[in-house]
Write a structure and sequence with these properties.
It is an enzyme of class 2 (transferase). With 178 residues, the chain is of the alpha/beta class. 36% of the residues lie in helices and 24% in strands. The longest helix has 17 residues, at 13-29. The structure holds S-adenosylmethionine.
């Protein structure tokens, strides 16, 4: 698994609770190592940690609320990682995937509302997942899928308490803790 982190900008607790939670869940499920969330929302991090505890990933997936996202970007670049900013104004993903698929250290930035120009200038790549407006959840899922070429759908979490027994109909889960 690559060292991919997601930076979620501008989280507003009252408005973005659900979307930011889904950004974090997609990051975890599809092969990122963690998520930095700009803002203050302890309830959100607790909820994500509960999912990690039950469904696994807690031993390595990092969830952190942060107040200075520019510092995260600068630090990531200083350590030699590449920064991808997902924006509908960027270059469409099919024309950029060759440039990023071999990178092992990626910070993927997604916004909530209008993203400051600073991020457009400091990102190594401004990438669109189609040049149509949609959602940070969708764009994150698709870029991770293209980077991992579908392999992320087979990710297993060894430190899980619950897992699904896949079946064509019905629902079955097993619990390791009884
Ligand atoms: C709901 S959008 C709001 C974007 C905002 N109106 C702007 O001008 O930047 C929130 C986030 O979704 C992501 N997003 C939305 N559409 C996208 C697209 N077509 N390609 C890549 N990312 C997209 C971007 O990360 C964006 O910051």
């Amino acid at each position: 698994m690559k060292n991919i982190y997601v930076l979620r900008l501008g989280h507003r607790p009252e408005r973005d609770k659900r979307v930011t939670t889904h950004v974090a869940l997609v990051a975890r499920a599809f092969g990122a190592r963690g998520v930095f969330i700009e803002g203050e929302d302890n309830r959100l991090t607790e909820n994500i940690k509960k999912v990690l505890e039950e469904w696994g990933g807690g031993s390595y997936f990092k969830v952190e609320m942060i107040s200075d996202p520019k510092k995260i970007v600068n630090l990531w670049k200083r350590k030699g990682g590449k920064v991808v900013h997902l924006t509908m104004y960027g270059v469409n993903l099919p024309d950029m995937i060759d440039r990023i698929e071999h990178e092992d250290n990626l910070l993927i930035i997604v916004g909530a509302q209008k993203v400051e120009g600073w991020y457009y200038h400091h990102a190594d790549y401004n990438i669109a997942v189609s040049n149509q407006p949609h959602s940070e959840i969708a764009s994150l899922a698709i870029i991770l899928d293209r980077i991992y070429k579908g392999e992320e759908l087979n990710i297993m979490f060894e430190d899980n308490k619950i897992s699904v027994i896949p079946m064509e109909r019905g629902k079955k889960v097993i619990r390791r803790d009884g």
